[in-house]
Amino acid sequence: MPMTDAPPPQRRRDSERTRGDILQAALEEFSSMGHSGARVDRIAARAGVSKPMIYDYFGSKDDIYAAALREAYVQIRRGEAQLALDPNNPRAAVRELVHFTMDHFRRKPWFIRLLNSENLMGGKTVAQLSDAADIQSVLVTRLSEVLAQGKRHGVFRRDVDPVECLTSAPMEHFRHLAERRVSGSS
């Protein structure tokens, strides 16, 4: 095979893929180190990009954190949107939602750690996300329909709030994990 002196072809960066790589690296960094302990240079190293490139894409460390937090919510909501929650079988629908949520937490352990980090900061970043309500609203609407049907059929109590129901799953999962760690069981 003849050798040539031609330079190797330049690889063009796929902007969306690069953004996704940065977000995934940020999810891992912020969830393992918390907001104050996270370092942009480690995010860059994990994503395989330069530190200035991260700032080009996102602006500041706080902006990267906000984008990563938003991405965490988008990922879980995207999966939930694909669930076939049957409002005519409310018990099975809630069971399916809980099963999906727990499976998501097992597959993406950074999710709970990131939420814990945000909670330690008083939820200030998630409160500032301009589309946070939109991200949540589809699932809240679907769950409201399921809960309403369950209430009509006497399956669920009348005072069950869909938002409370959604937020209690991560807390219950965290409590379960903490109890397992304290008791030494796996």
From TrEMBL:
<feature type="domain" description="HTH tetR-type">
    <location>
        <begin position="16"/>
        <end position="76"/>
    </location>
</feature>
<dbReference type="InterPro" id="IPR001647">
    <property type="entry name" value="HTH_TetR"/>
</dbReference>
<dbReference type="GO" id="GO:0003677">
    <property type="term" value="F:DNA binding"/>
</dbReference>
<protein>
    <submittedName>
        <fullName>TetR family transcriptional regulator</fullName>
    </submittedName>
</protein>
<keyword id="KW-0238">DNA-binding</keyword>
<dbReference type="InterPro" id="IPR009057">
    <property type="entry name" value="Homeodomain-like_sf"/>
</dbReference>
<feature type="DNA-binding region" description="H-T-H motif">
    <location>
        <begin position="39"/>
        <end position="58"/>
    </location>
</feature>
<dbReference type="Pfam" id="PF00440">
    <property type="entry name" value="TetR_N"/>
</dbReference>
<dbReference type="InterPro" id="IPR050109">
    <property type="entry name" value="HTH-type_TetR-like_transc_reg"/>
</dbReference>
<dbReference type="InterPro" id="IPR036271">
    <property type="entry name" value="Tet_transcr_reg_TetR-rel_C_sf"/>
</dbReference>
<dbReference type="InterPro" id="IPR041474">
    <property type="entry name" value="NicS_C"/>
</dbReference>
<dbReference type="Pfam" id="PF17938">
    <property type="entry name" value="TetR_C_29"/>
</dbReference>
